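Bench log, entry 3. Co-assembly request; chain sequences pasted below exactly as received.
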Amino acid sequence: MSGTKTHGMTRRTLLQGATAIGALGALAPAAWVNPARAAVADGEVLTGSHWGVFYAKVEGGKWVDVRPWEGDPHPSHQLPGIMDSVMSPSRIQYPMVRRAFLEGGAGASPETRGAGDFVRVSWDEALELVTNELKRVSDTYGPTGIFGGSYGWKSSGKLHNCQSLMRRMLNLGLNGSFVNASGDYSTGASQIIMPHVMGTLEVYEQQTVWPVVVESTDVLVFWGADPVRTNQIGWTVADHDGYTYMEEFKKTGKKVICIDPWRSHTAKFFDAEWIPIRPHTDVALMLGMAHALYSEGLHDEEFLDEHTTGFDKFLPYLTGESDGVPKTPEWAAEICEVPAEKIVELAKLFQSNRTMLSSGWSVQRQHHGEQTHWMLVTLASMLGQIGLPGGGFGLSYHYANGGAPSANSIVLPGISDGGAAVEGAAWLTEAGAASIPVSRVVEMIMNPGTDFNFNGKTQKYPEVKMVYWVGGNPFAHHPGTPGMVEAWQKLETVVVQDFQWTPTARFADIVLPATSSYERNDIENVGDYSARAIVAMKQVIEPMYEARNDFDIFADISEKLGARDKFTEGKDEMGWIRSFYESAAEQAPGRGIEVPSFDDFWEKGIIEFEIPESSKQFVRYADFREDPLLEPLGTPSGLIEIYSRNIEKMGYDDCGPHPMWMEPIERLGGEGAKYPFHVDTAHPNSRLHSQLCGTSLRETYAIAGREPCLINSQDAAAKGISDGDIVRIFNDRGQMLAGAKVTDDIRPSVIVVNEGGWYDPAPGGEVGALCVYGDVNTLTVGIGTSSLAQGNCGHTALADIEKFEGEVPATTVFTAPAG
Ligand SMILES: Nc1nc2c(c(=O)[nH]1)N[C@H]1C(S)=C(S)[C@@H](COP(=O)(O)OP(=O)(O)OC[C@H]3O[C@@H](n4cnc5c(=O)[nH]c(N)nc54)[C@H](O)[C@@H]3O)O[C@H]1N2
Ligand SMILES: Nc1nc2c(c(=O)[nH]1)N[C@H]1C(S)=C(S)[C@@H](COP(=O)(O)OP(=O)(O)OC[C@H]3O[C@@H](n4cnc5c(=O)[nH]c(N)nc54)[C@H](O)[C@@H]3O)O[C@H]1N2
Ligand SMILES: [Mo]
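Structure output for the full assembly:
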């Protein structure tokens, strides 16, 4: 696992699994072009993105309108923002260099990073500077001098994958001398704990499919999950099939429960029962339910005996025999603020009905986040419905339309990062870890040479001097922005390549303008889980200003490093796209399908695949349930591990051998809690993280020109805050402004500020400066979830809030810096 590969690789593995299911279908369905669904009007181009497939209308070389593809059952309302992003005032137009860097060389006046003083340079000059820095840093500091693990939601597409392309350049041109990163910010804790417990990553795996849930599930629980909001996007190109089935489930009138401090979009859509839990206390709630089941003999002993290991070791903890604290519903109620009677009622409701526990990922993006899904699996094991149609648990119904039945399709390969050509990285490991858990980047820069734990291993943080970031926005995504400002000051060189003047670009020395996805050609699967089409991501308009494709930028740098031919393999854009399609087409006979030639496909723009009946009946873990000996899990015991000997051997004091309630570093009601509000940093409804923050879409949700902050009406009254007021939110780590939205959709003592608001510090560059737009990561905790997974804690933050008095500083982050 390395870097964003977790996204790329597992999602690809998943597609392969998906098509394997399809191949079992008895009849051989063909791939087809549906003329009614590829009805490109005059002046229109059909293309695709994280938000789905759509038509872009072009007039006189200008992109003027956008309309969704007919095959999209629930288009995202964000589409107009995509169009605006190519021409918004936040667009990077030319190569730019920070003045002090240009005049004083690498490392000059690092405190002026983020102050916005840039000079325009030519492409030749910019590429010469970048290449010289790559060579200088790697010659001077050796293989760990450059950090190339840049993380983020770069655009879809199998060729213009800027992160693979960057690492390809570093692998082929610099013999792999760079530090990489593993894992992601989405599921940092879960993707490490789940293989110990279930033998797979779980979070990116196909779910018991929606048609089965609609048919068989009686009680559908969304546990810290808001699929109506978060299924808008896909890692490949979104299909939005989950919405079709959510509509169907709603029509059945069956029970839906949302356990969430926020009455979410999903809670409203289903008119669900809302359990407004205190944040970060889900493990306590689950333990209270487990205790209720056990004390009334309602747990499924047979399932626990045959399919799990270690319940006997967990039991003394549950009953309190081992630590003197019985985890009763009353005990849990004190912590999670769900009444004890309710806890018992829910436990019995789940036990006596076919129940699907569908969990999102915020519950693991927090301190000790490993415990939540481990305890969820334990609770589901006690309920004994894992592997039954519509029962058990699911960790991806809210993500990229997990649970949408998989088509019998072909899977596209993508550009490789060239790592296979590099001789082992042993020399790199000696100088420090060849790869760090992705969210430890600030810790790494601040503590070179220091040991860190990760999933049973101890490694050393390498000494990084140069950072090259593409396709991500760490100054929006990393918890603890002030810490990142400080860390960046220790670097000699920062290169950022993007098409938007993001906060990260503003903190760079060299800024290179990339094309957006809509200014080049590419190809992608539609539906991360359904894989039900392949779309030609056709170029909509010519590159604007001086923007260049990441591919061409890295090919030029590779040339300067003597590796152009290795980098391009002699192929241009369309040559690569054709090669991906033709290589995928070789899978077609094995799957019993026929696909059009590349030229036919490209002309039509999209091909669709049939979804076989067999994949509409897929039940996760049905085989394992039926025969755990013949169909064992990938865990050491082959069973669900409620107790893990491997984790026991690691001996960590922040992640024990069975799931436990562990106090997070801070929480509402926790001992010594210094601030009265929990900040819920849920993902934005009208952005993809920070993407589109610079567009006109912002005007549809901003309050007083700031990022919204949802606050409960009682809290607002107590603080003298009215709807539409500008508020200051602050703690010991940082401070930000926001626009108040007073509502009873958020429980008291919790405020919601979505992640991804652009960091707009006044004054720029200063650690702890007031963010005048509303980057919530000014407030969050930068530590790892535990020694086991070292995931990020983006949802962990307590803060206080007050009405902002005094002169309101203007936002400056949405236009290009001067120069
Ligand atoms: N507090 C808190 N923080 C969080 C989270 C949270 O829940 N709470 N969630 C976390 C999660 S799950 C995630 S995934 C991260 C997301 O963090 P990021 O993925 O870093 O966020 P994005 O805004 O999607 O950034 C993608 C960047 O890539 C650029 N880009 C797009 N296409 C291209 C391209 O073709 N070429 C180049 N060069 N650049 C391109 C975009 O303009 C944008 O700046 O945030 C994390 N941060
Ligand atoms: N529109 C849109 N969709 C997206 C994204 C986006 O940026 N915008 N990002 C995509 C990505 S990369 C990812 S990783 C996924 C993220 O998917 P998730 O991580 O599941 O999404 P979040 O919005 O962070 O959290 C989901 C819900 O958990 C609730 N919550 C917060 N803390 C707690 C808690 O302690 N306990 C409980 N029970 N609930 C809690 C929040 O109020 C929210 O409603 O979304 C994906 N989908
Ligand atoms: Mo994510």
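The first helix runs from residue 5 to 23. Residues 1-28 have pLDDT under 50 and may be disordered.
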